[in-house]
Amino acid sequence: MSPLLITVANQKGGSGKTTLAMLLSEALLRRGYATCVLDADPQASAWKWAHRAAAGASAFPVPVHRLHAQDQDGFLGQVRAQLLELPSRRSVVVLDTPPRLDSAALFWALCASDRLLVPVQPHVAYLDALEEFVALLERVDTHRKSLGARPLVCASVLLSGSGRRRSEALLTQALTRALPWPVLRTALPERAAYADAFNYRTSLAALARTSRARATLAALSKEILR
Ligand SMILES: Nc1ncnc2c1ncn2[C@@H]1O[C@H](COP(=O)(O)OP(=O)(O)OP(=O)(O)O)[C@@H](O)[C@H]1O
Ligand SMILES: [Mg+2]
Question: Least C-beta-crowded within 10 Å: which of 5, 127, 132, 164?
Answer without folding.
Answer: 164
